[in-house]
């Protein structure tokens, strides 16, 4: 028994020393844990069509293609996984995250038969660079819509480009080839898969595909010069990538979206060009994201060329770097100036590979390899600590979203379909979380309608957390769901357990005027109304002489619980004096609704 346990322990240790697999498994579970505690947000709600395999998805894709963009691959994946239990996406997304770092490692190594220890350091270096330098890490690796648009698409691109990379690398014949290049040369059956990956790659991201096509073309020319022939998969792969790019870029929706996202239509053509060129240069020379990588790349190339006189890898390094530059420069034709955000993820990845290639060459020297081993060990340890911190902050956001979800379900089940939610607290956050912002305080602003549709309610808005805790936390759905002033008065008279306090404002609506006049009040004099079943009281004074009114005053005048910054009850109740305000309390004095009566209609709003 002891001997078998010793053998098992030995095999596990050996696995960590000879294979990437144990590291991939650990990385998978780290991503899985973080994906599970990442809630849906922003665009996710708009991406849900119906069931995962419902034919409506194709109608949705046609609508997106005609009205917004040609990113059919990403839109299909978003709609598909929004129709499945989220855990399914969490698993797939974790797999794609692992595949991404594996593919980056293979792109760095190329056709060279690198030792395991070198591949491990490259693998770690790619994680370290992405985690520390790309500020939108969470939006790329955790957020559903961001992942399918950028992470997944980049995996397709790297996978489709890899055969080009290793084959072009292998034609030099200056080193022992690895298994990938050998397999590609021997198995022509691989070609249909390459074609599929390439057409998907072409239909991923408008700016990234420009650099991708450039790199494919240069690798074909390079291969022709070196070997005097071009493999068939080069030709078919390039053509299918170009086909995918045409489908993507020629989408009618792109031209409609351009009118929406173009930043300044008042600029002349010349000014727009200057702005775009300037913004492209700033990405590489001013933004820490690529500036750090750029400086490291220059340093490594200097050492490689002038210290070790190594030139073999200069071509492929510069090719990745130039392709990265073209991916950013492509923004010049998109109507928006380039900026450092998730949209340049493709450029970042290619520039990172350009940096890691000379690093991998230098690591063949023992001293540099030892130094890199120490540096990567320290950085990975730091990542563990920062990832733990990021996970805790992410869990806090997940906790808040779950509380809001439970509130929405309880309110909608009770009959309230116009719901007010507390805004999210982002005081505990990290740059690695996919913070996409909150819902709007206006029901028609994006992404509120999508969120409301997802939960099957009419509308949703968010309000200040303190305001929500006071006015909406204990909302009675049977009262808070009323959206007509007339109906509100009828319900108020029927329910003797609740007390409605109405501030009329300067311009009470016709519904409110009728209610006042029908019950003996003077519409020109009434300032406050208290309703409790058949008991209706009118006050003509600005001061709150009504007993329950003083209760409201005491409650609202406390700075901690104030609706607004002012502590005067007049200001609190008259945020907009043209409209009337209504506060409803239950028999225990708890506020169960706060709403605004429109002055020009019978409508009610809550905010």
Task: Looking at this protein, list some descriptive labels.
607 residues, two-stranded parallel sheet, elongated
Give your account of this protein's structure:
The protein is an alpha+beta fold and 607 residues long. It has 26 helices and 8 strands. It has helices at 2-18, 21-36, 43-47, 56-67, 72-82, 86-109, 116-133, 137-141, 144-170, 179-186, 191-202, 206-227, 232-249, 252-261, 269-285, 288-307, 314-329, 345-362, 366-413, 448-455, 465-471, 477-480, 485-494, 510-518, 547-556, 569-573, and strands at residues 418-422, 459-463, 499-503, 528-532, 535-539, 580-585, 591-597, 604-605. The strands form 2 sheets. The protein has a 6-stranded antiparallel sheet with strand order 5-4-3-6-7-8. The protein has a two-stranded parallel ribbon with strand order 1-2. Helix 20 (448-455) links the parallel strand 1 and strand 2. Helix 9 (144-170) packs across helix 11 and helix 12 (206-227) runs antiparallel to helix 13 (232-249). It is elongated and about 100 Å long. The termini are far apart.
Question: Can you give me a brief rundown of this structure?
Answer:
This protein has 607 residues and is α+β, with helices and mostly antiparallel strands. The chain has helices at residues 2-18, 21-36, 43-47, 56-67, 72-82, 86-109, 116-133, 137-141, 144-170, 179-186, 191-202, 206-227, 232-249, 252-261, 269-285, 288-307, 314-329, 345-362, 366-413, 448-455, 465-471, 477-480, 485-494, 510-518, 547-556, 569-573, and strands at residues 418-422, 459-463, 499-503, 528-532, 535-539, 580-585, 591-597, 604-605. The protein is built from 26 helices and eight strands.
């Amino acid at each position: 028994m002891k001997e078998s346990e010793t053998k098992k322990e030995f095999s596990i240790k050996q696995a960590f020393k000879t294979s990437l697999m144990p590291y991939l498994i650990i990385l998978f579970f780290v991503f899985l844990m973080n994906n599970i505690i990442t809630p849906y947000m922003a665009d996710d709600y708009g991406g849900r069509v119906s069931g995962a395999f419902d034919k409506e998805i194709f109608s949705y894709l046609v609508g997106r293609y005609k009205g917004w963009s040609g990113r059919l691959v990403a839109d299909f994946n978003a709609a598909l996984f929004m129709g499945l239990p989220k855990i399914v996406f969490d698993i797939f997304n974790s797999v794609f995250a692992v595949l991404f770092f594996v593919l980056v490692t293979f792109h760095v190594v190329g056709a060279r038969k690198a030792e395991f220890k070198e591949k491990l350091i490259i693998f770690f270096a790619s994680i370290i660079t992405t985690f520390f330098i790309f500020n939108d890490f969470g939006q790329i690796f955790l957020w559903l819509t961001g992942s399918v648009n950028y992470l997944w698409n980049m995996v397709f691109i790297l996978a489709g480009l890899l055969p080009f990379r290793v084959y072009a690398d292998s034609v030099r014949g200056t080193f022992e080839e690895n298994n990938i290049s050998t397999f590609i040369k021997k198995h022509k059956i691989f070609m249909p898969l390459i074609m599929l990956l390439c057409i998907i790659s072409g239909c991923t991201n408008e700016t990234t595909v420009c650099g991708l096509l450039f790199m494919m073309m240069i690798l074909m020319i390079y291969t022709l010069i070196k070997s005097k022939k071009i493999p068939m998969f080069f030709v078919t792969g390039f053509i299918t990538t170009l086909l995918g790019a045409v489908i993507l870029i020629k989408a009618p929706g792109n031209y409609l979206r351009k009118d929406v996202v173009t930043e300044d239509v008042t600029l002349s053509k010349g000014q727009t060009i200057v702005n775009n060129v300037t913004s492209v240069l700033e990405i590489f020379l001013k933004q820490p994201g690529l500036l750090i990588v750029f400086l490291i790349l220059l340093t490594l190339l200097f050492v490689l060329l002038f210290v070790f006189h190594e030139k073999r890898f200069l071509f492929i390094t510069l090719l990745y770097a130039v392709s990265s530059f073209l991916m950013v420069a492509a923004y010049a034709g998109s109507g928006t100036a380039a900026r450092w955000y998730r949209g340049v993820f493709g450029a970042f990845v290619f520039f990172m590979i350009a940096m890691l290639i000379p690093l991998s060459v230098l690591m063949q020297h023992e001293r540099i390899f030892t130094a890199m081993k120490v540096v990567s060990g320290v950085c990975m340890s730091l990542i563990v600590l920062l990832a733990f911190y990021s996970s805790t902050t992410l869990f806090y956001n997940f906790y808040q979203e779950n509380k809001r979800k439970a509130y929405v379900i309880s309110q909608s089940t009770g009959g309230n379909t116009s719901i007010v939610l507390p805004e999210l607290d982002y005081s505990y956050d990290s740059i690695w979380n996919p913070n996409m912002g909150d819902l709007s305080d206006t029901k028609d602003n994006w992404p509120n309608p999508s969120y409301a549709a997802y939960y099957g309610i009419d509308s949703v808005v968010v309000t200040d957390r303190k305001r929500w805790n006071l006015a909406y936390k204990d909302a009675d759905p049977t009262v808070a769901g009323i959206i007509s002033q007339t109906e509100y008065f009828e319900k108020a008279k029927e329910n003797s357990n609740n007390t409605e306090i109405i501030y009329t404002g300067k311009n009470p609506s016709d519904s409110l005027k009728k209610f006042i006049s029908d019950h003996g009040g003077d519409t020109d004099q009434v300032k406050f109304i208290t309703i409790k079943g058949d008991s209706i009281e009118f006050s003509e004074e600005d001061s709150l002489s009504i007993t329950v009114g003083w209760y409201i005053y005491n409650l609202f005048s406390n700075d901690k619980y104030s609706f607004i910054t002012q502590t005067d009850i007049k200001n609190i109740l008259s945020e907009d004096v043209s409209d009337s305000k209504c506060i409803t309390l239950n028999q225990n004095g708890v506020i169960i609704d706060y709403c605004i009566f429109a002055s020009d209609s019978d409508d009610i709003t809550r905010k």
